[in-house]
Design a protein that fits this description.
Length: 758
């Protein structure tokens, strides 16, 4: 009978495993078409991004209607460029961000977007004769002049007015009608531009002699190429902009540069995932395999959700995805650790699984909710790449809760229910059978691996180390300040990717020849990042790009940021961090108590200070992604702290009377019990970060370095900063409770004398 049961158990395991493998294979095959149909951002496929400040042409206050009208006109112009999946984002009350991934000619796109495109008819003395109101909207056509050269044909709407104006002009001595595009008072004049009229360098489109009044179609003729005529037709038909657009930041990414970035990041991501899978299998055996399958499902679902919502995947988004994988695995690590704890107490595998999954749920929920809270703050107050990072992070948290909490537990439950692993706990979750005590025989519970380690004993030394790093950071900050990138210091960023060996000496010569003021040059492998103080305009960007492409056969990426953007980014960054801190305090006060919340936030402040200090010491550039990393650290660092606090809270409940000595003992015991779990959760997140750091794109180097510093600091602070501060706060509270309460009486209270007034 026993042999038959074992046979059935083995059969159930085999069937369940086959089903699981089929699902995994199905996911892998479905993944490829979904990935190929994703919309990639310009940093992954090349393109053009620009942020405009929108102002009224007449100097009046910018209204919502004007902004919307500008948005619609830009949409029409983008349609004419033939760009798939363009992004036009209204930011605040006076800004519009345009992202054109895959655009082949960024210079053409820049000119076509920002040109106001107001046509006007003037005489040779620059007097206005009539505006484009006399023309039919959207009726500009490609045509030819009398000599067969490319020209633009315009259809007249108000024929009477057009005839009257041309008739009057024909009778004048200077009877030339000049057609202007975006004529600027005080800048443009026919007398100075007559020789260049009709060329690319002039706003003067055409000048023709009017011998008699007419009301037929107007021909704009000049020294136009076929491409220029096409662009002009598209520009006129899209309508004139109701507002003036001032470029405040821009980024141009070559297609080959984007492809290289995507390849690097994907390879780094795959390596990171493989390393996590190996670690899970080594540490948790069969449970690690199931967790790995759930992780593959998690990755698939994140991409699927992103595809369904029509999201645009960017480089920061992939970084958030890989980071999310590490964070998702944490949920399983917490659960597996709890199951192992229950097994070491002498419980059966089924009971240990039940209790372990139940007791781990609160810590998992709390840690993911805090991360979600920070991600939402990033999304609301972040700009561009930060917002993209936050979007993916929000999706990853939601998918994590489904795959790692629901799916993993369901799959493991199916295998536990078979009974096959009852006597094979080492195979199931790496717990040797001899380490599980038989409670009926009064066998001792297995001692935790760090049972004899007094973690709190060395607190002062470690805190002193933190203070030393922060003080050293302040010294370097006072001496050199922070190495602010163009995101927080107006200027331009030039990235050169080439197979040739680059030197700072040679690049300085290049920049001198280009008349660019260099702020910083960083050379890593075959890639150089140059920051210049100049805010490059469109023509300079084209010149610089062509120069480096020709000289070094390089892939060039140029980003530009003005002072306007710098001020707003700085403000939003500070606001985001403060709001994240406040949100965590409120949530932890609600879920735990105020002393836990204060201790956790101080630990987070410590982590942020450490990261800033290390960036100051090593003079690492701070970009917009640095703030995303800081916020991610805040969200993730609190995870480790919550894991420890959850166990402290649990152990305190079992204590009948809390004293100062028992409080220290319980906290140290809680650290001992959770230390292995803390290290494992941190390591599973550090692995993909290391992979991205060494194998990924330089575009997220700042992010990866900040994350690495923050994760290490967060692991340390959750033990030695948060716990110690919690003890100090609680000790003060215990002291207050021990003090006898004074009884205050009113000095005028009537005294009671026996036999007299009582």
């Amino acid at each position: 009978m026993k042999k038959k049961n074992n046979k059935n158990k083995k059969r159930n395991v085999i069937i369940t495993t086959i089903v699981l493998l089929l699902i995994t294979v199905g996911i892998c095959f479905s993944f490829i078409p979904i990935f190929n149909n994703l919309n990639f951002g310009l940093d992954l496929q090349g393109g053009f991004e620009v942020l405009y400040k929108v102002e009224s042409i007449d100097g009046s206050k910018m209204t919502k209607d004007k902004l919307t009208a500008t948005y619609k006109t830009l949409s029409k112009r983008i349609d004419s460029l033939g760009v798939s999946e363009p992004e036009i984002i209204l930011e605040g009350n006076d800004k519009i961000r345009v992202k054109l991934a895959g655009v082949k000619n960024p210079d053409q796109a820049r000119n076509q977007l920002s040109t106001v495109a107001t046509l006007s008819f003037r005489d040779t003395e620059d007097n206005l004769l009539m505006t484009s109101d006399v023309l039919k909207a959207g009726n500009a056509k490609v045509s030819q002049d009398a000599s067969g050269n490319p020209a633009v044909s315009l259809s007249v709407k108000d024929k009477d007015k057009f005839y009257d104006v041309t008739n009057k002009l024909s009778k004048k001595q200077n009877n030339t009608m000049v057609i202007w595009l975006d004529y600027e008072e005080g800048k443009d004049s026919y007398s100075s531009e007559s020789s260049t009229c009709g060329s690319e360098d002039s706003n003067c489109l055409s000048a023709a002699t009017v011998s008699q009044g007419f009301a037929s179609d107007v021909i704009i003729q000049g020294n136009f190429t076929d491409e220029e005529v096409d662009n002009l037709v598209d520009l006129i038909n899209s309508g004139s902009l109701p507002s003036k657009l001032t470029e405040v930041s821009s980024q141009t990414v070559g297609a080959s540069f984007g492809d290289a970035t995507l390849s690097k990041t994907l390879i780094a991501g795959i390596v990171g995932v493989v390393l996590i899978i190996i670690l899970l299998v080594l540490v948790y055996h069969f449970a690690g395999i199931v967790s790995s399958i759930a992780m593959i499902l998690y990755t698939f679902l994140v991409f699927a959700v992103f595809w369904l919502i029509g999201g645009v995947l960017t480089l920061p988004g992939i970084a958030a995805l890989v980071l999310g994988i590490g964070m998702a695995v944490d949920a399983n690590v917490i659960t597996f650790s709890r199951i192992k704890d229950e097994l070491y107490k002498g419980k059966s595998l089924e009971h240990a699984f039940k209790e372990g999954t139940k007791s781990s749920l609160s810590a998992i929920l709390d840690s993911n909710i805090t991360t979600l809270l920070v991600a939402i703050i990033m999304f609301v107050y972040g700009e561009s790449s930060v917002k993209g990072f936050a979007t993916v992070l929000i999706i990853t948290v939601a998918v994590t809760m489904f795959t790692m909490v629901v799916i993993t537990r369901l799959l493991l439950k199916l295998f536990v229910k078979t009974g096959y692993f009852d006597d094979k706990t080492n195979l199931f979750i790496r717990v040797k059978r001899e380490d599980i005590p038989d409670i009926s025989k009064n066998e001792k519970v297995k001692v935790e691996p760090f049972k004899n380690v007094d973690f709190l004993k060395h607190t002062k030394k470690l805190v002193s180390l933190s203070l030393a790093i922060i003080c050293l950071g302040l010294v370097f900050f006072g001496k050199d300040g922070l190495n602010l990138g163009i995101d927080y210091k107006a200027g331009s960023n030039i990235t050169i990717d080439t197979s040739e060996k680059l030197t700072k000496k040679e690049l300085n010569k290049d920049l001198k020849e280009l008349n660019l003021k260099v702020a910083d040059i960083d050379i890593s492998n075959e890639e150089a990042t140059i920051r210049v103080d100049n805010v490059l305009k469109a023509n300079r960007i084209k010149r610089v790009t062509n120069y480096f492409e020709d000289k070094y056969d390089a892939k060039v990426n140029i980003g530009v940021v003005s002072n306007i953007v710098k001020q707003e980014l700085t403000k939003n960054a500070i606001l985001s961090v403060l709001l994240a801190m406040i949100g965590i305090i409120i949530y932890l006060s609600f879920r735990f108590k105020f002393s836990y919340a204060v201790a956790a936030v101080v630990a987070l402040v410590h982590d942020v200070c450490i990261v800033f200090a290390l960036f100051a010491i090593f003079h690492i550039e701070i970009s917009v992604m640095f703030i995303a990393a800081i916020l991610a650290i805040i969200g993730y660092s609190v995870n480790d702290t919550i894991v420890g606090f959850d166990r402290i809270r649990e152990n305190l409940k079992e204590e009948k009377k809390i004293t100062k000595s028992s409080l220290v003992r319980i906290c140290n015991k809680s650290i001992q019990e959770t230390f292995t779990r803390t290290i494992n959760t941190s390591f599973t997140t550090i692995l993909p970060v290391l992979s991205l750091l060494f194998l990924g794109s330089s575009g997220i180097l700042t992010f990866n370095l900040a994350m690495l510093f923050g994760l290490i600091s967060g692991t340390y602070s959750s033990i030695f900063i948060a716990t110690v501060l919690f003890i100090k706060i609680e000790e003060k509270d215990l002291t207050k409770k021990k003090k006898p309460k004074r009884i205050y009486t009113d000095e005028f209270e009537e005294k009671k004398v026996k036999g007299v007034n009582c």
